[in-house]
Write a structure and sequence with these properties.
Elements (H helix, E strand, L loop, with lengths): L7 H11 L1 H8 L3 H15 L6 H12 L6 E4 L4 E6 L11 H13 L3 E4 L23 H18 L4 E5 L5 H10 L19 E3 L1 E4 L3 E4 L8 H9 L2 E4 L6 E7 L2 E7 L9 H4 L12 E8 L2 E2 L3 E7 L2 E4 L2 E4 L2
Parallel strand pairs: 1-6, 2-3, 3-4, 4-5, 7-8, 8-10
Antiparallel strand pairs: 2-11, 6-7, 9-10, 11-12, 11-13, 13-14, 14-15
Helix pairs in contact: 2-3, 5-6
């Protein structure tokens, strides 16, 4: 496209008013040239140029209340740290948890997300115990969850705290609802009652582009399938696999992300029911960085050994 057709500022205005198809006719260039120029301008300005349909969709979204269980947030320039599947048990914290706390202290993220299965709930599982294995009581698990979450809370006191509930977290209320439904509205029967600083939900939507929730699809290709079927960058836990899967189409690139686990895959929570089988699990967590409201490539922080994590090509020592 010749530069004389219009300036970048004029191109942005026309694109938002007309959309790509009408703009290609207005400037008498093919549609591919329109998309190419839009991508180049977005890259230089680190911003997103929306079509009239996208702008209208955003206005409609803002005019309605979100569905129950969905929390909305926005970030222009900032960081989100997401740790998932902690399965906290009594005892020493895992290296992944200690690293998560340290990164919260260092980076002071705008948002911290515990993406489900903070509570393990072994003693209230729907699965029968194996032999005479010992599991901590619900009270013991609640207390260790409170201790670990307070470490995170105190590490970055101005961060917004979200907790999309996981299937293990749901064991707490499912058990009570099953055996004592008459206590439905009594304070303390809901898991969130015990963790007042964290906003419980099913999903967190950031800038309408990023969805954070505990689980969606299953299987080894779940991360890619999630973003393919949702049409959004989708951050999930549940499978403990710690991976980033990009997907690109006419709308650009988005990501399917699995957060891994903040637990030790060889911890006592898992040893009996996994029968000491090999597990395709990786301990670590995820950092999301935004510039001018646009998500950069999601970053993985993975556990390297008992004292280090791997981040940006270097080993970070964890105290």
């Amino acid at each position: 496209m010749a530069k004389s057709a219009c300036t970048d500022a004029e191109f942005i205005t026309l694109y938002q008013e007309l959309g790509p198809h009408k703009l290609s006719r207005r400037l008498k260039v093919n549609l591919r040239a329109i998309y190419t120029r839009r991508a180049r301008i977005e890259g230089r300005a680190a911003t997103t140029i929306s079509s009239p349909q996208s702008l209208q969709s955003n206005l409609l979204r803002q005019s309605f209340n979100p569905p129950p269980g969905r929390l909305l947030d926005e970030i222009k320039d900032g960081i989100i740290l997401i740790g998932s599947d902690s399965h906290y048990w009594p005892g020493e914290p895992s290296i992944a948890h200690r690293a998560f706390v340290q990164f919260c202290k260092e980076y002071k993220p705008d948002i911290i997300v515990k993406n489900g299965d903070v509570l393990d709930g072994s003693s209230i599982s729907r699965h029968p115990p194996i032999g005479w294995e010992h599991s901590p009581t619900v009270q013991e698990e609640i207390e260790v969850c409170q201790e670990r979450l307070s470490e995170i809370e105190n590490s970055s006191k101005n961060s917004r705290l979200y907790w999309p509930l996981g299937n293990h977290d749901a064991r707490f209320e499912t058990r009570l609802a099953t055996i004592a439904p008459e206590f439905a509205k009594v304070h303390g029967v809901h898991l969130k009652d015990h963790f007042p600083r964290w906003r419980a939900c099913w999903s967190v939507w950031v800038n309408d582009d990023v969805v954070i929730k505990h689980r969606f699809r299953g299987g080894v290709h779940a991360a890619r399938t999630n973003t393919l079927q949702s049409g959004k960058t989708t951050i999930t836990g549940h499978l403990h696999s710690l991976k980033v899967s990009p997907f690109t189409d006419y709308h650009g690139t988005r990501w399917g992300v699995d957060c891994g686990t903040l637990a030790d895959p060889l911890g006592p929570q898992f040893m009996d029911y996994t029968e000491d089988n090999p597990k395709d699990w990786r301990p670590g967590f995820i950092m999301l960085s935004f510039v001018n409201g646009r998500l950069l490539w999601p970053e993985i922080i993975s556990v390297h050994d008992d004292n280090h994590v791997d981040f940006r090509g270097k080993l970070e020592c964890i105290s």
